[in-house]
Specification:
This protein is mainly alpha-helical and 139 residues long. α3 packs across α7.
Length: 139
Amino acid sequence: MTHAALATRVADAAALLREQAPRVLDGFLALSAAFESSDLDPHSRETVILAVARRSQCHLCVDMHEAKLAALGPAPSPERLDAVEKFTLQVLASSGAVSDAELAAFEAAGHTRKNALEVVLGIGAYTLSTFANRMTRAA
């Protein structure tokens, strides 16, 4: 898919949400901005988003964030990204009630408790986005 085609799909999705539920779009944009300003590095943020998008089966988000992750280039530490993806999926599967061992493994990969909560912020933002995209049929 070309960059232009993807940009059109994203713009169309935003327009649908703006038309049908502007407060939902505003909420997502605020949450997304907060997540983007978190201490998680860009590769980790995209990894969180992709884990949520894949789990939610939001094809628009998967396409967009795979492209964003690819544009970032190689990750400085693939092992750290693996830990982010695994932890994100554990948070989703447990509704946030990760075990002490799971939290310790995330921290052992070089992340902090603050980062763990920032993962929750990303999950919240992109659960909103992916669910809304699917409901408006933008996905």
